[in-house]
Design a protein that fits this description.
Number of domains: 2
Shape: elongated
CATH class of the largest domain: Alpha Beta
Oligomer: single chain
Low-confidence stretches: none
Strand order of the largest sheet: 1-2-3-4-5-6-7-8
Helix content: 40-55%
Number of strands: 8
CATH architecture of the largest domain: Alpha-Beta Barrel
Mean pLDDT: 92
Radius of gyration: 27 Å
């Protein structure tokens, strides 16, 4: 294995190429590291990316840095229109992952004859970046969906009724950003087709789309996640099927179910019934005092559900309960859009 001799023009050029691409790779890694740290709060990913940066920094030899003294880079500052299309976190993650991969490939090629250790390391890290990009994108997707959960207080759950698709559209037009579709009747093939239509509607309105109970339909319709009851598939199995980017919500009505759901990694909870409801006949309502006791230490999003209507929202707000899931008060309204607007205003009105 030969050593680079900076007195030779070709070796100068090779050293300059490696120097530039080590900088490029480490810069791209820093972008990914900072997003994992500040936006996602993923210590494991931060540690992984930081380790890559440190390894490459350790192999950024003096001979590479000294090559900068020979010939100036006449192409500095050249840009491309595509650079200005990175207008969201996902595009930034993908573009910087590609930047790191491309830089490491260049290093791998030009270090092969004189620095086999750097060549080997560059190859290994380059392949790891493919997996890292997927994990960052999936975590980012989950982060974006959780943002909708956190920022919106009205959650609509469907029941079978005439003109359901039109009513869902009206409710979305009214500003509702969380829709749960219940597929309790009919053929699976028909339910899937309908779910795809609802998902497309929700995408158009930037709304979160969840499927009740049916993990298979959620997966096939590319829904944002599922809402599971206590008798449905367990959270860990649903997560294995859907992946880390999807939202999983759980229905719970007692302390042990709430605790287990949180430990198993649910993203949010639906807790109730708060009041008497025709949707869950035979269920004894919790009442507001019990609801407050059950939820006082919960740190993930949770929605009160069961018998909630516009008329009793003020009672909930008086007890610092602001996130609600509603079924009949919206679906049975003659003007679902206007009703949605009024309920949202009721939830956000400080008076």
């Amino acid at each position: 294995m030969k050593s680079l001799n900076l007195k030779l023009l070709e070796d100068q050029r090779i050293a300059q190429i490696i120097d530039a691409n080590l900088d490029r790779a480490r810069e791209g890694l820093r972008v990914l590291e900072d997003w994992a740290r500040f936006a996602l709060g993923r210590k494991d990913l931060v540690k992984t990316v930081k380790n890559y940066r440190q390894i490459l920094g350790k192999h950024h030899l003096k001979v590479y840095k000294e090559s900068r003294n020979f010939v100036a880079d006449k192409c500095t500052g050249l840009g491309h229109p595509e650079q200005f299309k990175r207008n969201n976190a996902s595009s930034i993650i993908s573009s910087n992952s590609a930047r790191v991969q491309e830089a490491l490939r260049v290093i791998e090629e030009f270090s092969r004859d004189h620095n086999q250790n750097l060549c080997k390391i560059s190859s290994e890290i380059r392949y790891e970046i493919y997996n890292l990009e997927i994990e960052l994108l999936e975590t980012q997707s989950n982060y974006s969906l959780l943002k909708i959960l956190n920022e919106n207080d009205l959650y609509f759950i469907t029941i079978d009724t005439e003109n359901l698709l039109e009513k869902i559209k009206n409710i979305l037009e009214g500003g509702v950003k969380i829709i749960q579709l219940r597929c309790k009747q009919g053929k699976d093939s028909d339910n899937l087709k309908f779910a795809i239509k609802v998902r497309e509607l929700c995408n158009n309105f930037g709304a979160l789309f969840l499927i009740n109970d049916r993990v298979d339909i959620a997966l096939a319709s590319k829904a944002d996640g599922v809402h599971l009851g206590q008798d449905d598939m367990d959270i860990k199995s649903a997560r294995f099927i859907l992946g880390p980017s999807k939202i999983i919500g759980i229905s719970a009505s007692n302390e042990s179910d709430i605790k287990k759901a949180i430990q198993d990694g649910c993203d949010y909870l639906g807790i109730g019934p708060v009041f008497t409801t025709t949707t869950k006949k035979g269920k004894i309502p919790l009442g507001i005092d019990t609801l407050k006791s059950l939820t006082k230490d919960i740190t993930i999003p949770w929605f009160a559900i069961g018998g909630i209507k516009q008329e009793n929202i003020s009672q909930l707000k008086e007890n610092n309960i602001f996130k609600v899931a509603i079924i009949t008060d919206l679906i049975n309204s003659e003007k679902p859009k206007e009703k949605a607007i009024m309920i949202i205003n009721s939830l956000t009105d400080e008076n």
